[in-house]
Design brief:
Elements: E1 3-7, H1 11-23, E2 27-31, H2 34-42, E3 48-51, E4 54-55, E5 58-59, H3 60-70, E6 75-79, H4 85-94, E7 98-100, H5 106-120
Parallel strand pairs: 1-2, 1-3, 3-6, 6-7
Antiparallel strand pairs: 4-5
């Protein structure tokens, strides 16, 4: 079973993402602070992180380079509806796996499930 870590300040979004991943059969950890996210990455318990645009008073643009330094092949899926196109481009250069709008509609929720499944299909030997 694969572990998905969800790090988002918005309770409703966290709940939707956690429910989707749990229904898909993944082990889910919901994090409320940067320290626990870093711990999950360093201990290699988190293979995929679903990350909101701002978390624990850090913007995603500050957090992603830090996470990538801890584990360069970590799959990070940014889930946010308020990131501009230039910031999205910068995040892609930093190495995010995918950027998705917040999953409000049923088809967006299905997209999130598919993206998580694709992120988990990456070869294990390339993990960190």
């Amino acid at each position: 079973m694969h572990e998905i870590m969800i790090a988002d300040e918005n309770l409703e979004t966290r709940t939707v993402m956690a429910d989707l991943c749990t229904e898909a059969g993944y082990r889910v950890t919901v994090s409320t602070n940067v320290a626990s996210v870093l711990n999950g990455v360093l201990k290699k318990t988190a293979r995929v992180i679903l990350l909101g645009s701002c978390f624990d008073e850090l913007s995603v643009t500050e957090l992603i380079p830090l996470l990538k330094r801890c584990c360069r092949n970590l799959s990070i899926i940014v889930v946010s509806s308020d990131i501009s196109l230039p910031v999205t481009r910068k995040l892609r250069i930093e190495g995010i796996f995918y950027h998705q709008l917040k999953p409000l509609l049923p088809e967006e929720r299905e997209e999130l499930k598919q993206v998580v499944a694709c992120a988990l299909k990456q070869p294990r030997h390339c993990y960190c």
